[in-house]
Amino acid sequence: MRSTPARRTLPRRSFVAGTAALFGTPLAAACGSDGSDRAGGGGGTLDVWVYEDPSTVVQEEAVKRFNKSSDIKAKLTRVPGDGYENKLRTSMGTGNAPDIFFNWGGGSIQDFVRKDMVLDLTPYLREDSRFKDAFIPSILEAGTVDRKYYGVPMRSVQPVLLFYNKDVFREAGAEPPRSWNDMLDLVDTFKKRDVIPYALGGAEPWTDQMWLEYLLDRYGGHEIFYKVQNGDMSAWGHPAVLKAAQAVEDLVRRGAFGKKYKSVQYTNDAAPTLLAKGRAAMHLMGSWEYANQKAQQPDFAKDGLGWVRFPDLPGGRGDPANVVGNPTNYWSVNAKVADGEQGGKREAAAVEFVKLAAEKEYSRALIDNGDVPPTAHARSLLSEHDNPAYARFQYDLVDKAPYFTVSWNQALPAKQGTPMLTAIEKLFNGQIGPEKFVATLKGL
């Protein structure tokens, strides 16, 4: 899934594969420091890498505030989004690696953690209760690896929601779904009116993935994917995985996504436009859909866009209050920041920098940017959002969630995430059945 609500292009592993040569040392020299002050270099500057998009302004201001009071200065390196993951992957373990870096938590840094490249922040969070308690618990937990904290939440919450067109529902005399049976009944309701029940950008399998994420969570609980995320591929053999795949097969056969979903894209706004123009009734998508609609279809975003949570499923074991998506993005600290004569001071300075994300001033800056912060104190600030009702809905959904499952392809290493997406695409396209789908995932 996408990592930031404001971007129009996707920072996906499948999109950036093979671009490492484009984002090597020349780019580092152009937009970062000269390398002498980087991790392990023992210098007095902390090189901070951030994914470059409209939210970068918030991190720019944080660096300025930090540098006013810190002897060890932070220097922000803005890395173009489409090359961020490859650039980070090729730099870690070298002299060009960042001291502090933006990431997606969980599986996105798992390989680095296993190679002892990331600083364990657990002691700092345990020693400073105000630091730890500043964040929504489910968001903070989503940044863990092997139950240890390696990330500090630093951008907006990004749950997956079920969006709907108010006018289309009004014309059909229908109500937004509250149960899975409602979801199925609405397929027939809108097909009779020649309206696609659920818009789907099936040409990009990360959009398909969202359906399976919720179906598996609702049928079997979050523990199943948690095991997968931590390396137990046998967990894909849980009966709930087969049940989720069968539900997808049923939706496709019912015509829930229309006839042309395989060629519809999200990144060119085709799927969002189907919803905005009333050619589709609903759209399961990350919370950035609001910002996207506001930019492309402002009148629809203001008056015609509605949203609800994904419903519970009959007989499901999962908590219906759970959410899936990208909990947020995280700051992590390179373990080499502690090396050298000034290691202790640099580590302390790096921790103080990431603590900025826990402050109200930082949360207010996110809200001013149109985001919903992952902090516990953000509720009192949401009236300042450009759409307070939408901001409060998102915030309450996440705040009350017992568990927030990270987008599967962001939670898993690329060697597993890429073939998983291929299998998901084949399932939605009818190229493999549910049983073959399960067997493929178990073999990852």
Automatic annotation (TrEMBL):
PANTHER family: ARABINOSE-BINDING PROTEIN-RELATED, BLR3389 PROTEIN. Keywords: Signal. It holds the Pfam family SBP_bac_1. It comes from Streptomyces boncukensis. Residues 1-28 form the signal peptide. This is Extracellular solute-binding protein. Coiled coil: none annotated. SUPFAM superfamilies: Periplasmic binding protein-like II (SSF53850).
